[in-house]
Write a structure and sequence with these properties.
Length: 374
């Protein structure tokens, strides 16, 4: 691809930068793992939507600007560089939406996406179960046929943002006789529906960043099934490939952190002991940026995200841990004074786990990308 931006992309980048400089809150919002912070972040999503900046690459009819994926990557770079608030809508915008674009009906897209783009409906991902994390095909929660829809029963866990979210997308076993990866159905469910119990799980900091979800004969109408009943695994791979390969973790976040690390290193008098690791983090973030430009070029030429998304996930999850460990070593006890580096480090530790653990990604790369024997 041509790395020189055309006038349209360069102009958009300038517009985004100017808007963020004007509008990013001067005082950080409360954490979106708290009830107050969640609502503050919801209001921020609405403000982004008013400026048509919440989903820039979506078609205009759903609240976007019909921007290219490259322009979306540029938007993300500006967004993180401006230290704008975390996206409380990220599960919906970056995982469910690409799934609906690929597998949803027109009715579903029109019903779901505009409300998602404005933060009116915030989504949680309900996949993991107590005995089905890495081995998601082992899930036991069921969807049973009933008139006009399905009845959900079972338990999900580690659902980020579900403590306060409005709806969830999840996988349920609809054919108990089918082989493991078959007979799964992908549904959207209202977390306030009768029969749903949301039990918050506190994180290390005590805030309920996760929840367990219990379903007791919860009715889901047919119109809330994505793709064909029983074909949920195929649909779920679209979600997972987006989570790992592009949209959930764009380079902007790592570029901003690497640039901040370089500034810290200069301010600390350029200590030789950490010079190489700081340079590695900076180069790693730029390498990921270039790789992402390659990914968006491929997608814009009609390509699809496949198992190579696992390579991407391994790269960014390792990069994030290394970058934050370097920052902590560089700053020593000073890192504990402000929350920025310690919070970032704590979150980086989750990178090799969520979205499929790094061990599982390595197996996927070995078997499905390199063709090695199981
Ligand atoms: C910050 C965070 C947010 C999350 N958010 C969500 C969410 O919103 N929705 C959701 O549904 N889930 C979410 N999860 C859950 C996450 O997807 C699971 O934790 C993950 O899939 C791993 O599953 P597990 O925890 O059950 O671990 P296990 O599957 O029990 O794995 C334990 C260990 O064994 C290893 N292991 C297991 N099987 C194999 C194998 N075959 N080969 C090699 N090694 C193996 C794993 O790599 C891991 O190191 C989140 C997790 C975190 C940390």
């Amino acid at each position: 691809m041509d790395l020189d931006l055309d006038d349209r992309a360069a102009g958009f980048r300038d517009e985004v930068r100017a808007w963020l400089a004007e509008n990013v809150p001067k005082t950080p919002l409360a954490s979106f793992d708290t009830a107050t912070g969640f609502e503050e972040h919801r209001a921020w999503e609405a403000k982004l939507a008013d400026a048509r900046l919440s989903v820039v690459s979506w078609p205009e009819e759903f609240g976007g600007q019909d921007r290219t994926l490259l322009e979306w990557v540029l938007f993300e770079e500006e967004y993180y560089a401006a230290r704008a608030p975390g996206r409380v809508s990220q599960n919906g915008i970056f995982m469910l939406a690409p799934t609906l674009f690929s597998h949803g009906t027109d009715e579903q897209r029109h019903r779901i996406l505009p409300a998602m783009a404005r933060g009116q409906e915030i989504w949680a991902q309900a996949w993991s179960e107590p005995e089905a994390g890495s081995d998601i095909a082992a899930l036991r929660s069921t969807a049973r046929r009933t008139e006009g829809g399905w009845l959900l029963t079972g338990q999900k866990t580690w659902s980020s943002r579900a403590s306060f979210a409005d709806r969830a997308f999840g996988l349920f076993r609809s054919d108990p006789e089918a082989r493991r990866h078959h007979g799964l159905t992908y549904v959207m469910v209202d977390l306030r529906a009768e029969g749903v119990t949301v039990r918050p799980i506190p994180q290390l900091d005590g805030e309920p960043g996760f929840a367990e979800l219990f379903f007791d004969d919860v009715f889901v109408p047919d119109r809330d099934v994505i793709g064909e009943p029983g074909e949920g695994w195929r649909v779920a791979m679209t979600t997972a490939n987006n989570e790992r390969g592009l949209s959930l973790r764009s380079p902007g976040r790592f570029l901003a952190a690497a640039d901040a690390l370089v500034r810290e290193w200069r301010d600390a008098g350029r200590p030789a002991g950490t010079a190489e690791r700081v340079a590695d983090a900076w180069i790693g973030a730029r390498a990921y940026q270039l790789y992402t430009f390659g990914t968006v070029s491929r997608l814009e030429a009609g390509g699809k995200l496949g198992p190579e998304s696992s390579v991407n996930k391994l790269f960014w999850s390792r990069l994030d841990v290394d970058l934050h460990e370097t920052a902590l070593d560089l700053l020593g006890p000073e890192a504990e004074v402000g929350p920025e580096w310690t919070d970032g480090w704590l979150f980086s530790l989750a990178g090799p786990i969520y979205g499929g653990t790094d061990q599982i990604q390595r197996s996927t790369v070995a078997e499905r990308v390199l063709g090695l024997p199981r």
